[in-house]
Design brief:
The structure is a single chain. The chain is an alpha+beta fold. The protein has one domain: Glutaredoxin. Helix 1 packs parallel to helix 4. This is Glutathione peroxidase. Keywords: Oxidoreductase, Peroxidase.
Length: 215
Amino acid sequence: MRFIYLSPRYDNAKSPWILSCGGEGFSGSADCHPPKKAPNQHIRRMSTTPSSFYDLSAISNKGKPIPFSDFKGKVVLVVNVASQCGFTKQYAGLEELNKKYRDRGLQMIGFPCNQFGGQEPGSAEEIESFCQVNFGVTFPLTEKVEVNGTNEHPVFHHLKSQKKWFGLSRVKWNFEKFLIDTEGNVAERFSSTSDASAIEPYLLTLLPKAESQKE
């Protein structure tokens, strides 16, 4: 699979590059380049600890607020995403889920993150263009965030505290997924290797309640 980047600022067109992640990889060519690295963006932190998933919010890749109170009664899938990872191909399956179930109460949201191998270096515009050109992504993306450490985004601080991995809370790599039920609780947490086909059965157990709340 070859990914297309619309990045006229990338000035090393003769250099091949490799997409790699956890041993997986895709090779690129002269007409398929990663976005130019963007400067670190300001990380927004909340001054108080949210008591509910619906008290949280994020900033979209266009700089607009996304209040999670808008997600009440929906099933939400939160994913930390990256454009230069071996798991980037999962965008295709995630978008299929989005189109298939959004009218039944699914809300998907992607959080670009550059913490793992520097695999999300582009600007908000470059990331959005990459996702749309290569995968036709229509679900919302946020500004770039951190998911671990001192500057971790409050959304991930909250989600990790609700669902840990073998006693550990940290996100291990790109494309971890958190599935939130209609009450705002983390119902399931999926590793990077879990693609859309692994998530769908769990999603189907939660959607009926979302549909009933729409009636």
